[in-house]
Amino acid sequence: MMLQPAQWRERQQAHEAAIDERVSARQHRRSRGLTHPVWDFLFDYYPVRVSHLRRWHPGLGITLADPGQTSPHRGWAGYRSDGGAVYCDSTSYVAKHHTMLAGIDSLLAAARNQPARFDCFGLHEWAMVYRTDQPRHDLPLRLGHAGTDAVVDAHRLRCTHFDAYRFFTPAARPLNLTVLTRGTQTEHEQCGCLHATMDLYKWCLKMGPLVPGELLLAAFDLAVECRRLDMEASPYDCRSYGLGVVAIETAEGKAEYVRRQRELARQGEAIRDRLRRILAAATIE
User: Compositional bias (Basic and acidic residues) at which positions (predicted)?
Assistant: First the structure.
C-alpha cells in the first residue's frame, strides 16, 4: 500500500500532536526539575526519548510516496529509499535485531498461549514494600507499614511476571507461589498479568519502524490505564495525585481489581495479536 504525501503528512502531524498531548505534563515537570511518582514510570521504566515517540512510523508494508525527497524517514534507521518512495526495510531491520525480535515473539506467544490468571490481586506492589522501611515510591502507605505487612501475610503471592518479582523485598520472595527467573520467563508469562499487558507498549517501542504509529498510541494509552490500576490497587495512597483506591484487602476491592484487570487484558489481546502478525510478516522465526 502506498500513501501519497498529503495522506502520510496528515497522519504524521496527527501522531505528533497526539504524543505532544500525552507528554506535555511530563515535559513541564522535567523543565522544572519535578517528578511524579505515578506517571513518570511510563517514561523511566520504559526509557524513551520524546523525540523518538514523536516519530510517526507507517508500519510494515506501507510505502510513502516522496517525490520531493523531503520525508524525514529517509534519515531514520530501518528505512530504505527508492527514488521517490520510502518504506520500512524489514529485511535489514530484522537481520540487525533478530535476537531481540525473536525474544519478543516468544514472550508474546507465551502470554497468549497460556491460560490467563486473575488471582494475584495486584499484590506485587505490596510485596515490594513488605517488611522494609525503604518504599520504592515517595508516597505514604495507605495502611501504614504494619497494616501493609499484614495484608501480605494474609494472602498467597501468585505473581507470574519476573520483572515485578525481581523487585520483591528479600522477605517477600519466598512467599511467592513460584520462584521466577529470567530464564524461565516464558514458562510463566500470561496475558492476565497487568504488567504483561503494560509491556505491550515496550514491545511496540522496541519493534521500531515495524509498528505503525496508531498501534504505538493504543499501547501507550493502555499502559496508562494499567499503571492507573497498578497504583490504585497498591499499598500507596495516591489520592493526592488524583487517583482512587482499589482496596484489594477487601472482597469488594478484589472484585473491582479483577473486573478492571480482565478488561485491560481483553484490550491487550488485540494489540498482542497484531504485534505477532507483524512479526510473522517480518519473517521472525
Answer: 8-24
